[in-house]
Amino acid sequence: EEKLVESGGGLVQAGGSLRLSCAASGFIFGDDAYGWFRQVPGKEREGVACISSSGTNTYYADSVKGRFTISSDSAKHTVYLQMNNLKPEDTGIYYCTTEKYVACSGYVWPSDYWGQGTQVTVSS
Description:
With 124 residues, the protein is mostly beta strands. It is built from no helices and eleven strands.
């Protein structure tokens, strides 16, 4: 059974950092691109970061570029999102996603499978 399980969310002050983890099971890790989306109340769900199946290509939304870093550990079948210099507008539910063979160029985001989400709250 394919499954994505996020963890690492929480409450942090503006300027602080969090690292989200996404444990993937039931997937062939080397075939799948992974992404992080976030859902802010009243706004459309937004793609935040993407990493290709090889791990060599990444893409970031302009709103997080330079502050967030996506990475993957194939041995642990886990994808991470390191979030630094957090801002109140980063508050939302963060979802891990995956899809095969997505290039992570910004035109297509991995979205075949979704995790349950983890809440990130940044206080001012």
